[in-house]
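So, could you explain this one?
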Amino acid sequence: MSEKRGYKLPAILAVGLHVLILIFLVVKFDWFKDEEIIASGTPGPIINATAVNSVQVEKQLDKLAEAKKKQLDKERREKEKAQKELEKLEDQRKEAEAEAKAAKEKAANDKREAEEAAQKKEELLKQRQQAEEEVKAAEAKRVETAKKLEEQRRQEVVEQKKKEQLKRKEQEEKERKLAEANKKKEEAEKKKKAEAEKKKKAEVARKKAEREELERQMAEELAAEAGEVSAARAAQTASRAGQYGALIESHVRRFLTGVPPEFKGSVDIQFKIAIDGSVIAIGSCDGDINVCSRVTAAIQKANPLPPPPDEDVMNLLNSNAVQFIPNP
């Protein structure tokens, strides 16, 4: 506002000075006319023409013309000077107006820039406030999300503990049942083993009795076939045959595979051997089919067998089935 006042004052002074010069020129021009009229003698006193010399009149007229010329030159110079002053004042006025316009435009630009700066500042302030609000909202959301995640994790931990407890209880129950089942199984196996052992002992006793009976029968047969052979020789042959049978059983058992350990019975198999122990033929087998198959394969792998002590034992063995116990 102070700049606008500073530019308006020179413009007002220039215009005022311009007006004063115009007034001065008009007034001076009128005054010169009055002098011209007086000099021409129109309203003045009447000159006596008879008393004035023509030379003097001519001189006077020349003086007047010279004075008028000088006056006109002076007025022309003053007028030119005044015109120059007017032009200078006009230039100053235009310059003042231009400066005033420039100042006005500058003030307008400054005002607009100030308004734009204020608006921009306000927008930045709003943006900052909005950013702060967004940050606060994001932080609140983060805190809320963290709380939810923490609660979810806590729930998961609780659920996991419940599952682990349930799984542990199920495992304990399973182990308890398994322990009971194992205990029952062990008791059953012990009972079964005791019964098998008892049965085995009974079977061994029965087999022994059968073998003894077989030896007795073979002895009787030998005695009946060879009347000249004494009963003592027949008994000796049967005894040697029994020992040889046990030897063959032990030899064949080394080649025996695939018989379940829980099998506690026996099989009766017939086969013929030569005097050198070579197996000539394998006959029928009485007993468990699978065990008979395994025993037959073992005799084939064990061939040749240990040779018999004599022909009597060989003949006695070839004419009777041999009892074989896989798991004695």
In short: Residues 226-324 form a domain with the Fusion Protein Consisting Of Minor Coat Protein, Glycine Rich Linker, Tola, And A His Tag; Chain: A; Domain 2 fold (CATH 3.30.1150.10). The chain has two domains: 2-133, 226-324. Helices lie at 2-40, 54-225, 231-253, 289-302, 311-318.
